[in-house]
Amino acid sequence: MRKKLRVAAYAVVVRDGQVLLARSPADGGGHEWVLPGGGMDHGEDPLDTVVRELDEETGYRVEVTGLLGLDSSRHVLRWEGLQGPVDHHGLRIVYEGRVVGGELRNEVNGSTDMAAWHDLDAVPALTRVRLVDIALKLWRERPVDGRTFVSDEQFPA
After folding, report:
1. Is-contact 33 118, C-beta < 8 A?
2. pLDDT for 68 beyond 60
């Protein structure tokens, strides 16, 4: 079985009771809200990754104000164009950040199509990826080991 490791960096940016999210096409159609961020380029520092990705996806320049934690997930997936399953291991580094410049805008020709602020209380009603809940839990609880658990029950397969 082919093995793939993807390392990515994301940021929780909260301002005035709202969290900054980006919207991405969902598998099977529709859209889902995601935490702004994305995959590291080879040789890139994760902190540089999150700053670059937030600029690309939201138009904002951010300052990283802390490391919230890590999320590690492993799934066997089938990817178009590849024969057989892929053992995919995702390592997601979650930072806290604050806006220091730029203007909110949508990404053009990228992995997301919209960026927006959402009231923290409204997040549970959004169609979102699991990482949004994981990251917000890290942000709220700030566990010493940088790890948290979010139930799969709210994210049916």
Report:
1. yes
2. yes
